[in-house]
Amino acid sequence: MKVVLAIFTLIGFVLLESPLPNAISEGWDSIQKEQETLKTQAYNILRHKCNGCHKKQNPFMVFSEKNMSKRSEKIYEQVFVKQRMPKGNEVKLTNEEYSLLKNWLLTEINK
Length: 111
Fold this sequence. Notes:
Blueprint (H helix, E strand, L loop, with lengths): L1 H16 L2 H38 L14 H10 L13 H15 L2
């Protein structure tokens, strides 16, 4: 029994002294930064490509950094499921913009 306890104590000490917790922490920080960058890119798409019409047609649906996460499911539905947005021929999203927006939306929806 003492041997088993000594082994678990040694394993615990090795884990505490190993760089693994730092690597996990650094990896998590990197993921958070990537998500923030993706959110910023998505916001820029919404601001430049969507808010112009939304201000005129539906001012209550203008996107901001504060409200965009709450509206992520609705945005996804309108852009990717129903394909209703963007409306008309005035505003087009590039393939890269669609991809960035979709990646951010799926990240938000699956939180």
